[in-house]
Amino acid sequence: MLQLFNAILLKQGLTPEKAMQCAEVFTNNSIDGVYTHGVNRFPRFVEYIQKGYIDIQAEPTLKHQFGGVQQWDGNLGPGPLNAIHATNSAMQLAQQYGIGCVSLANTNHWMRGGTYGWQAAKAGFVFIGWTNTTALMPTWGAVDNKLGNNPLVMALPYEQEAIVLDMAMSQYSFGALELADMKKEQLPVYGGFDTNGQLSTDPGAIRLSRRPLPIGYWKGAGLSLLLDILAAVLSGGLSVEGITRQKTEMAVSQVFIAIDTNKLGNHAAIAQVVQNIIADYHRSTPENNKAITFPGERVLQTRQRNLRQGIPVVNEIWETVNKLNK
């Protein structure tokens, strides 16, 4: 998969370094089981390059800095590359100031937000980051879309790996709905409303109505709104409303915050504190003998399984990817 992605991106004109970086992001997302923002999303990434929505030559430029806060312009470059750069910049600021906040305007889809949580946490930092999107979710009590699903990522180091929460503000991302619909599977819990305004577990019906359910109902809607406002304010970039007026989802705004826990007074005790919390969490009494896992734990299990057995891919998608290399 990595070799195929890399070959395709080289044909699209990316430099060898950029092609391999992007190929690694899409491959690692697929290895970790996030197929919706890995192999399944790759053809659209190539399409956006071909249509000029993604400028493969662009590099992010620093617009403003004050202390541990930086504002960057992504110049519509490849979203994953801009996000990796922003995460590295936030970590560098955190090493200097204890905390670094990097905002990124005018960038493209970062694919899986958890990528940057893992990146920072594996380097020893606490990470908080989010992005806004095009409008694709109604606020609570409305029927038209004014909110993005605005994914939020929180991460911290844990033993040799990390605890990583990566969540959209909709109960299911549109990528997850698309995959479930393709596989003709019902959702395990309500994911949105059908065209009759009834809660539904049918991903096809929810995609048709374009009324996904905010997490926590009105609470998720409120959180989505605030994430959008803060992304636009901190970056000086577009809000959901402005992004929605673009020809496609592009020129989004993102925020990356890194904290260097080595600068904290209690840094020597942090690892034990986290271990104690997770040990108590794992002692939860499970329902129906289901395993109790912390955010990111199932990703580790999926990663090990896919590295051992291979990455499961929908045949139709794999055929589409292979055609891009001809």
TrEMBL record:
Q: Which organism is it from?
A: Niastella soli
Name of protein: 3-dehydro-L-gulonate 2-dehydrogenase
**Record flagged with keyword DNA-binding:** no
Concerning Pfam families, the annotation shows: Ldh_2
Q: Name one GO molecular function term.
A: 3-dehydro-L-gulonate 2-dehydrogenase activity
The answer to whether the entry has keyword Oxidoreductase is: yes
Top-level EC class: oxidoreductase
SUPFAM superfamilies in the cross-refs: L-sulfolactate dehydrogenase-like
Keyword tags: Oxidoreductase
Q: Please name the gene that encodes this protein.
A: yiaK
Q: Give the Enzyme Commission number.
A: 1.1.1.130
